[in-house]
Design a protein that fits this description.
This protein is α/β, with parallel strands linked by helices and 366 residues long. It is 34% helix and 20% strand. The protein has 2 domains: 2-76 and 186-243 and 313-365, NAD(P)-binding Rossmann-like Domain (Rossmann fold, 3-Layer(aba) Sandwich); 83-170, no CATH class. β12 and β13 (278-281) form a beta hairpin. The protein binds uridine-5'-diphosphate (UDP).
Length: 366
């Protein structure tokens, strides 16, 4: 009999399991995949740590979270500065003075602000109600048209007018010449890849891979005193109230016989016609210098049952359905957490924070 059965060896599950194990609890972690690390998983190809489920860049303002993850890996000084490619025109991201200068030829922050304000007024937006209006009021119509509209349509499969403003608020808008994508005090990539970090996190904890919770469900009460479930909530309930919407992502990964394919870790293709959203060149996350390179083209799709859910579609309709599942979850006695179970667009640091807090809460309640 275990104290905790943790379903899912991704970030939330692994952090929760670590806290419990450090607290002297007996923990079993299961995952239906054949590897640990969830979507953070990296695999070495030609000595390059390939982010198999897309780019993961750790960034946080939360000192405790940063200190926690640094116990399990050394982080390098990688700073994310993606480049946007709009039909061969290159722009700096996040939106900053380099972007404004390239778009309009403006030099000073005041000039840039005036351009944006002019375009916001022309569009007649006072209070933004959706992603389109939010984007135009933050950066103006030209940047919206070239750098946001097509990319967002590809990533979310919906026009910006049907998406919540919150999605675009993730990105900083800066009136300085600063290409750092994140407003974070701490940022980096675990040296040697994320999988190594997870191996350390789960060190000494029993992990069973290729193990599906749905097959253990009936006996879960005999296996552990408490279950922690990090999968999707609608799947947990067999989609009995209908399924939530997610976006899924497919990667086309190639090893190339060149040391440098695109000159940056991340290039976003922001036009609507290019079928992929971005190309990741993995070696640059760790300043790799080998003769070869590995790239992944990222394609975004509407999720259907059986696919891997990546991004929750946090609109009103899904929010209402999620609330019904959440209601059902309350009577199960199970702890739910993580991006999938919470149906929230969490970054990695928030996921770690949630897991640390949850363990504190449940251990204090005993
Ligand atoms: N986005 C955009 N153009 C870009 C990059 C991002 O319009 O070149 C928008 C898009 O709507 C996206 C959102 O900003 O969904 C958040 O981007 P982020 O980079 O945070 O997405 P993630 O890396 O989590 O996929």
């Amino acid at each position: 009999m275990y104290d905790y059965l943790v379903v899912g060896a991704g970030l939330y599950g692994a952090v929760f399991a670590r806290c419990a194990a450090d607290d002297g609890k007996k923990v079993l972690v299961i995952d239906k995949r054949d590897h640990i690390g969830g979507n953070c998983y990296t695999e070495s190809i030609e000595g390059i740590n390939v982010h198999k489920y897309g780019a993961h860049i750790f960034h946080t303002n939360d000192r405790e979270v940063w200190e926690f993850v640094n116990r399990y890996a050394d982080f390098n000084r990688y700073t994310n500065s993606p480049v946007a490619n709009y039909k061969g025109e290159l722009y700096s991201l996040p939106f900053n003075m380099y972007t404004f200068n390239k778009m309009w030829g403006v030099i000073t922050p005041d000039e840039a602000r005036m351009r944006i304000e002019e375009q916001r007024r022309e569009a007649g937006i006072t209070e933004p109600h959706n992603l389109e209006e939010q984007a135009i009021s933050l950066v103006g119509k030209d940047i919206y048209d070239k750098l946001i509209k097509g990319y967002t349509m590809k990533q979310w499969g919906r026009p910006c007018s049907e998406l919540p403003a919150s999605i675009i608020k993730r990105l900083p808008v800066r009136f300085t010449y600063d290409n750092n994508y994140f407003n974070a005090l701490y940022q980096g990539i675990p040296m040697g890849g994320y999988t190594k970090l997870f191996e350390k996190l789960l060190d000494g904890i029993e992990v069973r891979l290729g193990t599906d919770y749905s097959k253990l469900k009936e006996e879960a009460g005999q296996i552990a005193a408490k279950v922690v479930y990090t999968g999707a909530l609608d799947e947990f309930f067999g989609y009995e109230l209908g399924h939530l919407e997610y976006r899924t992502v497919r990667f086309e990964t190639e090893t190339l016989d060149t040391p440098n394919y695109q000159g940056n870790a991340v290039i976003n293709y922001t036009d609507e016609e290019t079928p992929y959203t971005r190309i990741i060149e993995h070696k640059f996350f760790e300043f790799g210098t080998s003769d070869k390179t590995v790239i992944s083209r990222e394609y975004s799709y509407e999720w259907k049952i059986g696919d891997e859910p990546f991004y929750p579609v946090n609109d009103t309709k899904n929010g209402e359905l999620y609330a019904k599942y959440e209601d059902k979850a309350k009577s199960t006695g199970i702890i739910f957490g993580g991006r999938l179970a919470d149906y929230k667009y969490y970054d990695m640091d928030v996921t770690v924070r949630k897991a640390l807090d949850m363990y504190r809460e449940v251990s204090a309640a005993v």
